[in-house]
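Batch job 17 of 40 flagged for manual review because the log was empty.
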Amino acid sequence: MPILAEDPNLAILPDFKADEYVQAHAQIANDVTDERQATQILANLRCIQNDTDKHQWADRIQEEAQAAEEAQGAEEAHRQAAEVKDQRHQAQVAEQEAAMLEERKKNKSKYAPIHNADVPSNLVILPSQYAMRKMKSGDYCELFYFTNCGLEEASRNMFTADKDVLVMLPTADRLHKWIPAGSA
């Protein structure tokens, strides 16, 4: 079925008495039908075709309206789904912010602002292993290990090994053996 380009409801009935319809008159006219009847037959055929075109046009307009409604419904459903997703995301963000505020209330010292006053830009020197073990175990550790002199001494002695320290080394039979660091 061809798609109509123009609305057949607005079509004007042509003048079938014009010269351009002489050949159509010649095909219809015979001993029984004269020129006036041939003109009437052509007008009737045109009206029948126009009525068919009008029905096709109405069906097409109705289908387009339904397709537009379906597209609008799909667009509305998509928009609603996006709104629901956005609301869920906003609720999740609000929940995270509330949890963060609660955490900040509970641990005020953990989230205290740190001012950028006298922050060293040089390399960090770690205290000695002894001081680190004491701090991790929660035992008392002298303040000397964290002063400039103590940190300097720790950096000098970091790569030296005590004779009594044991070092784990693999043996020929793929086992590990603890050997004094002085003999290794």
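Reviewer: the log was empty due to a logging misconfiguration, but the result itself is present. The longest strand covers residues 166-170. Unflagging and moving on to job 18.
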